[in-house]
Amino acid sequence: MKINTNSNLYTFIYASVMVILVAAGLAFTAYKLQPAQDKNVRVEKMQNILQSVGIESTVDNAEELFGKYVIKQIVVNTKGEEIKGSAFDVNLKQQFKAKDEEKQLPMYFVKLDDGSTKTIIPLTGKGLWGPIWGYLSLNDDFNTIYGAVFDHKGETPGLGAEINKDSFEDQLNGKKLFEGTELVSITAHKGGKGSALKAGDTQHGIDAISGGTITSKGLEKMLKEEWLFAYKAFLSKNLK
Length: 240
Description:
The chain is of the alpha+beta class. The protein has one domain (about 50-240). It has helices at about 10-50, 60-70, 90-95, 165-170, 195-200, 215-220, 230-240, and strands at about 70-75, 80-85, 105-110, 115-125, 130-140, 145-150, 180, 180-185, 185-190, 205. Strand 5 (about 130-140) and strand 6 form a beta hairpin. Helix 1 crosses helix 2 (about 60-70). The chain is elongated, with a radius of gyration of 23 Å. The N and C termini lie far apart (about 90 Å).
């Protein structure tokens, strides 16, 4: 029987077959690439954790350095109690939405070449256009910030996207989380460069990004009630 290639039925069948073939091809490609993508995400996470304590790494040596310097990983709850779980496998996006009493809070402990120990807290929050995240490392007094690394998904280039620049991140080095025994964390002062100094806030203040106020405030919330304060009980118990 001769097929009428000009009929609507033929067009519908042809289009349907092509859609199915293309979808199958894309699904197969995604399936084959998934292990490589998962590895890339895992390695990037290791690199960021190491970077928060000043250890530079590459895609090739990140896993080796992570194994060398990270001496312990734990998960705690909002009561400051250690609970079962793998810190590296905790999904922060899920925990961000979880109720306080159900939150699983990952932590990493790193021993540097000079013998000092640092505690690393993963961070997650909301920027102007999407999620922001990072890692905050603390000295063994559980109060003084040793280093910080931040990143974002879609903040505005030249404005909010500046949160992942050294010039912004380095402001947190040496800042304090506690005022006495009260967890006050970090405030981002509006006004750009020098705004924290003008406000007289040298221990807990940083300069917000000029033109990136919403992103800066989103980061401030991440460092306060929206995320970091979930660690309050653990930090208070270990405060020196």
